[in-house]
Amino acid sequence: MAAPCRHVGHHIQKNGRFLRININQLFACSFSESKEAIVIPRKKSWNKEAVLEALASTVQRDPTAYPYQFQDDSYLSPRTSIEFKLFSLSQESGRAAAKYFVNSNPKLFTKDFAEPHIPYLMPESVALRLEEVSQEALEERISLRKVSAAVEMYDQLLQSGTAVSMETTHKLLDLICLYCDRDPVQEGTPQTEDRRKPMGRQAMDFLKCTWKENNNAERIFNLLPERDARCYSALIRGMVKHGAYAKAFNLYEDLLNNRLSADVHIFNALISAVPDVRKKNNERWDLIAELLNQMNEQKVRPNLLTFNSVLKALRQCSFLAKTFSPQILNEMKALGIAPSLATYEHILTVFFYKSASSGPSNMAILQDVLMELEGTSFTCQDPNDVLFFATAMKLCLDNKDLELGYKVHSLVEVGENWRLLGDSYQQALYYGRFFNLLCLMEHIDVVLKWYSRIVPSLLYPNPQGMKNLLQALDTDSRLDLLPTIWKDIKSLGHDNKVDLVEELLSLMARDEHSAEVQESFAACALDVKSVFGERPKKEWSTSSLSHISILLLRANKLQKAWDMLQLFKDKNRVPSGALLSSFLTACRCSASPQRAVELVQLSAAFSLPTTPELAKRTLAEFELNDKQR
Amino acid sequence: MASFGSKVFLSLGRTNVSGVGFKKTGNRATYATALTVNSSSTNKDLPARGGKGSTGRRPKRGPGEPRTEKMALDQDWTSVYPAATPFRANAVPLPLRMGYPVKRGIPPEKKGNLELIKIPNFLHLTPAAIRKHCEALKPFCTEWPSALDTDAKCDELFPVKIQSTDYVSAGPSIRNPSARVVHMKVKLSSLNLDDHARKKMLKLVGDRYCKDSDILTIKTESCPLRQQNYDYAMYLLTVLYHESWKIEPWEAEKTRADMEEYSWEDSTSQKNILDTLLRINATGEGEEAEVREQLLGREEVLEYKDSVETLKNEEPSESNMLRYKEAVRKVLKV
Q1: pLDDT tens digits for range A35-89
Q2: Could you give the residue ranges of the DSSP H alpha helices within chain B?
Q3: Across the interface, which of B5, B133, B238 has its CB nearest the CB of A18?
Q4: Between chains, do A500 and B190 touch, taking CB under 8 Å as contact?
Q5: Do B13 and A115 touch (CB under 8 A)?
Q6: Residue of A17, A44, A496 with shortest CB distance to B142
Q7: CB burial of residue B265 (10 Å; 0-12, 13-18, 19+)
Q8: Cβ(A289)–Cβ(A314) below 8 Å
């Protein structure tokens, strides 16, 4: 929909000749009114997007809105985290499918609607055009990322005797080493997606392909008449990326023997490979020190990634890390390299999780870090930057420090730092921990305020998070909010988590409350019952059944309560004596002796120890006719 | 007795268990029990099918509650509707109804209402939003010249006013063909025109002149670019001005039918009234022409002339008709 904005301007004479005459005339006759000169200021000029950016700055985040990529409709927005993942993946796959169609039928998509031209919307060339054996064909295959085709072309070129330029060879080696000699997965074909296993990121290594012996990269490398540092660099980095660590070091020795000097990328790769090559911490540190010395000798200037990989390698060296990481920070400062979030993340992990003693005194480190970073805007410089916020929040949660938690969150809200929260998994971790911290430490009103702000737009709490929320409600005696929480639990898809539901029921049934609260509880209990009813596989438990019955009784829904008793029988669960006596009291209030007798018979059927008591009470309190006796 | 009672219970229980009315989200079978880590990430993406019950189908996913329920009363509306978007029923917390009511009914509600989606809405331009936008746009503006503080001064110093519109919309193209239209407004009183020039100008422009406000509006949209349309409008103004001052030889052939306003001299009305009066005073005391002159000079005749001219030139109204009536009475001495 177009939003017209009016642009009314008074015309300043430029072209109209007659107007000049006219104005002069007018001036002559009416100038006597005002003696001021009319000063027309110069028009300001600005960037093309400046106006839009200014208008965009008036808009803040809408707390109830779902992420913008989803349809904003009550049917179509994702309500659980599973749906979130499913929808975003399906959107991506749809987009990939569309791109695939556009690219495979470029002749059908020639009309360009976009003004100014948007290259992404036009079909890209994915098919090879050059078929003859030539260097241009090789370059084309390299640019289209077709690894096997490129290798083939290279072999053909060598066989035919054409010389391939060094530049192209570098590119070819880079390509092969990056993709580990396999074709990268093309867009639009079905992909196996990576699964996140709870055991951590080591599991991800199993999915990467491993460097095979004597694969194409090595073969081509050996065939090269002269190898320079860049070729070595490609091979070493490829080996480290795909798991052939020892070979990488051997190749590095080779490089040194050939009296070539390595560049910073080689050193970064080697340093990150150190923990896999040496097993003992001392040896690891010695190797790292040696590499750094060599770097110094070869006059290679370290960059941010160097230090980050040193810290990352040190993480696995436990006690050594604590000693050496301050030194590394000092070196970074001396060289004038600003630490990135990944640096801080490594340091935090080192000091808190890898060392034997981690106590409240160590929170000072986190405080210092946050004070230094306050108000800074970050850009992503290292792939591990995204782990910082999750780790920081975990620290705050473990040490139950609310102040620092708020500080971390205020850092996230500065400018564009929210982008550094990472993908949806990291984001869920961060917000989940933040929410847990709030539930533990904050007053219930604040907790509810945050709850409405981040659920479900930013966070789909897991069952543990919901349990924490229930605890917080209990602590502050706001149990009247339980039915609304149950609605949220249902929409989040956690209504099949048996222990969560049971905890909810037990909280509801524990104490007596005022009348309308009881009503709402009873309605909630009925809801729970119907949820359970639709699930034939899930088992009822005695406690949940009895809780529901108690709630229904308290709200005087007798008929439904009787249905519950029947359920007891169906599911072979035994109601407690207390439950039956409260039933009896309810029967007395509603004056139905028939029911009382049935009750006694039921309890006899269950062979409860309280049967005689119940019988006595029934006899005493009700007027029974003979048949019922 | 007991068995009968239990049968009753059984039947009740059955209806309860198989009851519908509660719909839930899908994908249940693959859940694990509670984990500390976000359990969803370990589950398969494709939900397991079948095995849900006798029908083997998942129950339909019902609608969630609209997010209007969760909106705070003091929320920032400008963030909910930041730009022009179609009406979304679950984002607008107003109980709107729109549409033609069926017999004995009321207009349909807002949920799924196509009528509300079709029309343009201005939910993104509430007064609060406009205030914020103005604040944000102030840095782009320059100061208004302090000497131009009244409308009258602006009109006299800058008599020609140009108006054009810019359009912003979301889409692959930023061009909008309606943006080339240019309106040029000028007051004829600020142009130097004498009587003949003014009349000729009015004839030339025709509809484009508004009598009440004395503004000539020229709308140019025939060229593809706004700059071209502006130049064309300026050119038209120039040409009109010069042409209206020129007197062509054929203008001398202007007939009474071409006149813009009615003039009483030499009209049929004059002839008629003079004939009538002559016939009344039939005693001819001299030359006819002299008598006519004399009659013309008389007051009632002049008044008659005024009233006829008023009637013909302006719209007929009660007062004009009354005046005419009075004048006729006086002239005919009735």
Answers
A1: 577 888 888 889 888 988 898 888 888 888 888 888 888 888 888 888 899 999 9
A2: 2-17, 77-80, 114-118, 127-137, 151-157, 195-205, 226-245, 268-280, 288-297, 299-313, 318-332
A3: B238
A4: no
A5: no
A6: A44
A7: exposed
A8: no
**What is the Cα–Cα distance from B277 to B292, expressed in whole angstroms?**
9
Three-class SS state of B301: helix
The radius of gyration computed from the CA coordinates of chain B, to the nearest angstrom, equals 40
**How confident is the model over A497-533, as pLDDT tens digits?**
888 888 888 888 777 777 778 888 888 888 887 877 7
The DSSP line for A550-564 is HHHHHTT-HHHHHHH
Give the CA count within 13 Å in the CB-facing half-sphere of A125: 8
Chain B residues within 8 A of A51 when measuring between CB atoms: 137, 140
d(CA B27, CA A501): 18
pTM, whole model, 2 decimals? 0.72
Note whether B71 contacts A: Cβ–Cβ < 8 A: yes
The 3-state DSSP class for residue B182 equals strand
The answer, yes or no, to whether the previous bond of A609 is cis (omega within 30 of 0) is: no
Spatial distance between the Cα atoms of B293 and B176, rounded to a whole number of angstroms = 68
DSSP H stretches of helix in A180-318: 216-223, 229-241, 245-257, 264-277, 281-297, 304-315
Digit-coded pLDDT (tens) for A562-581: 777 777 777 766 677 677 77
Among chain B residues, the shortest Cα distance to A15 is held by B234
**Lowest-confidence pick of A181-190, A502-511, B27-36, B196-205:** B27-36
Q: CB contact, 8 Å: A86 with chain B?
A: yes
DSSP per-residue string spanning B224-264: SSHHHHHHHHHHHHHHHHHHHH---GGGGG--GGG-SS---
Strand partners, B163: A8, B183
Q: How far apart are CA B217 and CA B188, in angstroms?
A: 10
Whole-number Cα distances in Å, A511 to A47, A478, A514, A517: 65, 12, 10, 11
Distance from CA of B202 to the nearest CA of A (A): 19
Hey, what are B27's tokens? 């994908």
User: Is A506:A547 a contact under the CB 8 Å cutoff?
Assistant: yes
Cis previous bond, B172, omega within 30? no
- Measure A439 CA to nearest chain B CA, in Å: 16
Judge if ipTM > 0.85. no
- Decide if B204 contacts B240 (C-beta within 8 A): yes
Residues 110-149 of B with CB under 8 A from A: 120, 124-125, 129, 132-133, 135-137, 139-143, 145-148
